[in-house]
Specification:
The protein is of the alpha/beta class. The protein has helices at 16-26, 45-61, 76-86, 108-120, 154-164, 187-200, 219-227, 246-259, 277-280, and strands at 4-8, 31-39, 67-73, 96-100, 124-129, 142-146, 174-181, 208-213, 232-236, 266-270. The chain has 9 helices and 10 strands.
Amino acid sequence: WAPNLLVFSGPPSQRWYLVELADALSSGNGFLTVVSLVRADNWTAERGTSISEAMRAYLKKRDIRALVRVAAVTNPLVGMREFVRTYGFGPLLPNTVMIGETENPENFESFAGLLGEVHRRRCNLVVVRDSVRETPVSPGSRIDVWWAGKPGNIGLMLALAHLLRRTPDWRSNTLVIKMIVTSEDKREPAEAQMVSFIKEARIGRSVEHEVLVAGDKPPFEVIAASSRDAKLVFLGMRTPDDDETDVRYADYYRHMLEQTEDLPATALVIASGVVNLDALFDDET
């Protein structure tokens, strides 16, 4: 599996963490397209060309190889949905869309619609939250991947974490799969499940694992305490139901923002399919 990333960064300097993360994932492994959407009332052909040239120069100066696309839209979130529907070069269609979070409640419904559109197009989705804590902790050298013990997002999260650790800036980071159980008597079966999963995926030498007992604590309180000093945290999001309204999914997105506000930089992930971990980790076994 290799990423073909479509990244909605706007001007790269405004959300550089998005471009930097996407470049680490795609460098030597896939394709990267960086998109900036400009409101139509401020658009001219000359301005579009100027923005494109400025973005290319900015990326080139930082040694990032990417395609650059600039488009005029009446509404940024609606424009993103249209871009997801139409962008691609023949068989080279994006398989992963990366966007930054929105924290404006007025945009939650439209943002939920965008997430649903990405899912319907069978693209993977990564919503990146930069750290917003009032009392930031110095980032450690660890990538935490939280697993609920079910198939779905875990393969993509591990694939993304593995690709990051192939790059110089992330190579020294430890990769840890973490799971929460509600009581001590469930720890041993969870440990056995994780060991079996790691063995079947052939990633034994690449990851560590940990099972935490929540007891009466809410799961996200346990996650926040365990991952507060991680450099990056991967968490799975549920997919929108086929008949779910944007309003209802927006409530779920709001809940995820509230529950993850104390975490360091976090990638909220929805996988569109199963990632073949056997092939991905074959070079390390």
